[in-house]
Input
Amino acid sequence: KNQVEQSPQSLIILEGKNCTLQCNYTVSPFSNLRWYKQDTGRGPVSLTIMTFSENTKSNGRYTATLDADTKQSSLHITASQLSDSASYICVVSDRGSTLGRLYFGRGTQLTVWP
Amino acid sequence: EADIYQTPRYLVIGTGKKITLECSQTMGHDKMYWYQQDPGMELHLIHYSYGVNSTEKGDLSSESTVSRIRTEHFPLTLESARPSHTSQYLCASSSPRTTNEKLFFGSGTQLSVL
Output
């Protein structure tokens, strides 16, 4: 069964600290992996998209890594800010038609305290 | 900034009422989607469309219906709302002409059925 598992389920850090969120998947075949940020009560916003051949991609203070062999991805947030408080969702797409089938994780709820 | 809009943002209605959730995008995207999301859970695809006059059911069994008469408009209708329909509904759109077919989400409609 194709699945996307994220850890931890929730995380609290102090402003200015770094953190790393994990995503493990069993989706096969694999096309790409996306990280989204979802503020409370809003829709998800894309942070990064990585294909099979990419193992790292940055977007400002967000850096995503991908190990397609072990089927693991991480999202590293540097120098956290209060506005980083949100749910971070890992989404994996399988091959096939364009966009393929999307498999969503349940997200990691990050809270940044001052 | 995504140009995809959902109305209303919040809706509280009584059981048995008919409701329509609106979704519009100004990006000219062919593909549009409706997702349902409960707190702390993954997004579930309930309907999608690959273009005008094209609609398909998603993975999650839903008592809702959709229509796609115009490219920019993808409304979702519940003929008779029930408390089990209480959830957040997210509309999204994408285009195969964009790199890695990025998915853009609206801000969502939080529906509460009493």
Q: What stands out?
A: The mean pLDDT of chain A is 92. The interface with chain B takes residues 4, 9, 32, 34, 41-46, 49, 51, 89, 98-99, 102, 104-107, 109 of chain A (CB under 8 Å). The CA atoms of residues 5 and 19 of chain A lie 18 Å apart. The first strand of chain A starts at residue 4 and ends at 7.
